[in-house]
Amino acid sequence: MPPDAEEVAAAVFAALADPTRRAILAALAAHGPSTATQLSARLSITRQGIAKHLTLLAEAALVTSDAGRGRRVLHRHRSEPIKVAQSYLAALAADWDGALDRLSDFLDEGEP
Questions:
Q1: pTM, two decimal places
Q2: Domains delineated in the chain
């Protein structure tokens, strides 16, 4: 994996480590673009708490923010960083699968 993909994956894993941030992403995926106030009402978390988590999700490029009507800011989830993290995990899994297959073959050869 290129180093930048590893950095993206690390940022995604760090962001997703928190259950509140996972809940925010799930809410955005289920309900579409939402304001911090709407997310706060859906998740029973203060608007300030939502704003803090949205900032961390934005730093990991998992959400974007766009101006809505008036002073409203709409937040949207982004799937591209998650796809990079999935590719990173798939590459690691392939390495492990190959090593485990070789170990299994080695052990099978030793049996009578």
A1: 0.77
A2: 3-109 (1.10.10.10)
